[in-house]
Amino acid sequence: MKIDKEKLIRTIDFWHASVNQSELFAREAMHRVDYSGREVVDIVGPRRSGKSSLLKLIIHRLGLEGDFLYINFEDPFFIENSDALIIEDLIKTYQGYFSGNELKYLFFDEIQEITNWEKAIRKLRDGTEYKIFITGSSSTLLSRELSSRITGRHTTVKMFPLDFREFLFFRKIEVHSLKDRTLKEHAIQKAFDEYLEFGGFPEVVISGNKELLKEYFYDFIQKDVVLRHNIRDKEALEKMAVFLVSGVGKPVSNASMQKAFSLSYESVEKYFGYLKEAFLVFEVRQFSFSLKKQSKALPKIYGVDTGMTREVSFAFSQDNGRILENAIFLYLVKLFDSVFYYRTKSNAEVDFLVRNKEKNETLVQVSWDISDERTYKREVRALMEAMDELNMKKSYIVTRSEEDIYETEGKTIQIIPAWKWMLRSGM
Length: 427
What we know:
Number of strands: 13
Structural class: alpha/beta
Helix content: 40-55%
Strand content: 15-25%
Strand order of the largest sheet: 7-6-8-9-10-11-13-12
């Protein structure tokens, strides 16, 4: 198909101008970006989480002017121009009509909209000196899958909705020290309750419009699942997505969903995979040193955003404990390679076991309120058993507001408010 050169020029001009047209807020992910290496930088995460803004922040940080090309492939122009060859056409057109300087940087937003994009990126990386940044709203762009697609080195930056520290920054509450945390404690606690209510999608936080969250939810389903995978039974898919988001922190089986939505087992498996691929839900597996036992245990499900979970599911209007658990999961998944839950030999459950590079790091139990003695004893017993079985010395109970230290038998359980735990510089 012959490319309409005039439309291509207008498209390039529109997106190039957009780099300076919106107010940008700094994001933590900026510190994890490789600005100078030869590797392709792939930024992956759910749509609306700020990936486009991060690309623009990178452009500003590098001080770029006429030596970069920025394109968002969700532009309607690419509906009919989605072949990988369009990438070469973009570069040639930019060099011919726009660039006063040598083109050095390429920024491609929502790259998954281009068919066989990996071939074009691989060719550019191997045959040119461009520094390439790409974003995508599909988990298939994560490290292992991408490595096989572009057969070379790259660095992955995971981009999720705002964490709590970023939420505070967007609300103009800056916390840089223990002094800030201490003197602003009341404002921080109030903001934390709002964080659980609104979630972390940047536009929702800025506007205060929670109605956007339902739009986002169905946008995820329509654009990232229905259209991409040509789903015919959209109604069943939507019901299944609501079911999963409404059940955060609970085990789920494909068999139960097969029965509930009158779907084949194969359809349930596919739909579940597509929803995970779109970052709408996350699966947390039970940890076991036996891979066979680990694969047989039912996974627990968490949503991409606490605000979205509240808006989509009426069941969560008062279930603060599970909303808090979901918030803690989102905090952990950004920091650690692997997040599991753990079940002791006596069948006591610990909400999270986090690991880095195949090494156990810490155990985390989440409880909104442990003032009830039975709740306190249950949470402590589960952690003590797990620490014994995993040969660990320290663990956490993360609460809404309670704080304490429990020490016995050479082991320590730190009880800490979630807002305070999330504002520490590290574990």
